[in-house]
């Protein structure tokens, strides 16, 4: 009689994958916990877990794995375009999502980041970034089966699903935290807890407040527990203790579970904060990169088609290692937010001066990365932090970093004389005076003001600014992220103030509801601002997709234009390089093509027009993609 032992039949493919992953796993895991814990046992447990997820991985996802083994650069293709949306604000619920796939396809989208979908704590939840159950979907959106179906429908249309994975903390209502609170020492070791405030006070000396306004300090005292708990963000978000390998195993189990539901990209939230050391800001510590490598490589063993995007909104020097530097090269996150490009875009727009942008982007960033690239963006669901350092500012005559940051905050909150922006301050730090900024792309770029004034020139300028920004992120190098509504010019939405769960967090101002009635009106109202922006964005993305030089692996070289108003960069493809030039002012500009090393007849790939001979003429806020 035959017995079935499928569960234990060796799978040579998994063995190959595991042995391959092991090469890049051993080092970081040994460094993280080798001295304190038994590495052999940890690796054995990790292997068992990875293998059981691999066995459970659906056949269609294994087919996807294989296709990505053969094409590991898939996410760097110029065909890739990402869209970022709240599932409820975009579609209502997960079962309603597939009906909107044609809209995404029409824009050119191949990657959809659905903002936090996992079960949040009730009431305030930091926009869903306080998760109480990583295995359940927020019931207002649907169920895990609905997520799986939505992922399948997206995949069938060539769209990869990206989901948030909050790694730094859980909600204090998560089962681990509840058990910790009930006194279970195993789960208390999942968090960072202190019996008295001696160490918390020592740490506080060098920590930076993330929400100085709404949640000052990084520790919270719980009388029932009799302990201080590390709470970097809000009181209800408890920082996990990643020095405990049980946390690593538990999170990896979660990742692989969700990967088997069809999640293709994990957005690793707030990774900069995952490791802590006394006397430091407890951000961007070297161990974070070991952790990321371990997460990425272990995922690779059991769900090889999956990639990771690091969310580290940090200064330029700290940002680069998230895409792999030194021993981590080609081994950590595949994507990371280009926070600096975003800040420099807004800075150059406000000052009509691209010198700081040129200096910073050229000085701190390599022309490319091995098997990794930036996600380029103009706006997201968070505020803008004016990450401009004194060292960079010192390169620009008469510029001082604190003054420039102050100018940007004033310009974008709408108080600076002559500004075009409508935004608001966020989290003013009483100690440093630093302010961050909220506001939608359209409102910050002048559309709200232009619509109110009824001035057609202001309107043209606002639309041109928005489209210039889209052209920048589509061509600069990396995966462009479109934030929901930015393709239509949706302005600030103040209705959040009436919802007690949202009112305290001004970031909801730029998290509007999708306006489907506006989408329906686009064809009937082709001259409306929304139709002009939507048409422009579609054309930009279509032009991007036609050019191999815009693939993310092609080096980006910052050029000198010799003109403050103009920013330029070369996409240095071996055969068919493209030179991009952007006018950051409302004044027309001219530039000799030889300044950019260009000669002979030129073609603008963006407008698909031949350029007249002689100097280049750039209308207000124009972008040219020249070959
Ligand atoms: C990330 C999210 C932000 C959230 C924070 C804490 O930065 O983008 O919205 O507040 O993490 O989870």
Architecture overview:
This protein is of the alpha/beta class. It folds into three domains: 79-161 and 264-271 and 307-550, Glycosidases (TIM Barrel), CATH 3.20.20.80; 169-239, Oligo-1,6-glucosidase, domain 2; 556-626, Immunoglobulin-like (Sandwich), CATH 2.60.40.1180. It has 21 helices and 25 strands. Strands 1-2-5-11-12-13-14-17 form an eight-stranded parallel β-barrel, surrounded by four helices. A hairpin with a 6-residue loop joins strand 19 (566-571) and strand 20 (578-583). The longest helix has 22 residues, at 12-33. The radius of gyration is 24 Å and the shape is globular. The termini are far apart. 52% of the residues are buried. Residues 1-6 have low confidence and may be disordered. Residues 126-127, 129, 166, 233, 269-270, 311, 381-382 line the site of alpha-D-glucopyranose (GLC).
Features:
binds alpha-D-glucopyranose; TIM Barrel; alpha/beta; 8-stranded parallel β-barrel; 4-stranded antiparallel β-sheet; 36% helix; Oligo-1,6-glucosidase, domain 2; Immunoglobulin-like; disordered N terminus; 627 residues
